[in-house]
Amino acid sequence: MLQYIIWEVNPEIFHIGSFSVRWYGLLFALGFLIGMQIMSYIFKQEDKPVADTDTLLIYMVVATILGARVGHFLFYEPDVLLHNPLIVITPPFAGLASHGATIGILTGLWLYSRRKESRATSQTFLWVTDRIVIVVALAGACIRFGNLMNSEIVGRPTDVPWAFVFMNNSEYAKIPRHPAQLYESISCLILFFLLFWFWRRYKERTPRGSMLGIFLIWVFSLRFLYEYLKENQVAFENTMALNMGQILSIPAVLMGIYFVIRSYQTPVVVPARNESKETTL
């Protein structure tokens, strides 16, 4: 019978001198690249200008990284941010917070939609967010798997048969632990398929804000629960009844509930489109 899994994967794929390519960076980039291919498909299916996905990609990359960086220091290391604000844009960019990334992405998409919603091919904030959460879920799966490759964000000790021993993490090595990164990665992957199916079924008839709401409820409800299986990220959380990740997840879930309820109270206006146009993925 399997007792536990020895995890000693090298986080580096290869290096040349001081330059190294790591699994985390590759998976992070793949999340964006594959995601934009999916967004191009969605834009084609709904008669939106595919060229706009290039602009959307820029907004997403900048908003995600800045939001995740600022969020990490604001929520977990505020003193560092106060004394050295430039650390947000200083390599090696260690420290990314998913709650900060969520705020950054929503802000970036609001700015993006302000430029696009007045055009004939209207891209309102809720239209864009309802589609972008599909690829954000996929990117989340890639990033959390990258955390696994880095042996970081580890779980608490456990005796379950699928426990991992993170040999490359000197702080938590030699003790079987929950592979919390894998739990979140699989959850995000399931959400990706669910949201993509939901969009395929409704497309233009998708209730505005419904997919954003489902995303927020799914991701942050599970995040709240998974935090009970994870080691705290910073020492001050050890004295808290709920850690920072759980506290930040509560308003995200409430916001998700609001968007789901609102989406089914607001009628969807389906724009006219050229039905003879056929596209393939």
UniProtKB/TrEMBL annotation:
Pathway of action: Protein modification; lipoprotein biosynthesis (diacylglyceryl transfer)
Keywords, sorted A to Z: Cell membrane, Membrane, Transferase, Transmembrane, Transmembrane helix
Location(s) in or outside the cell: Cell membrane
Enzyme Commission number, as recorded: 2.5.1.145
One GO-annotated biological process of the protein: lipoprotein biosynthetic process
Known role: Catalyzes the transfer of the diacylglyceryl group from phosphatidylglycerol to the sulfhydryl group of the N-terminal cysteine of a prolipoprotein, the first step in the formation of mature lipoproteins.
Protein name: Phosphatidylglycerol--prolipoprotein diacylglyceryl transferase
The organism of origin for this protein: Spirosoma validum
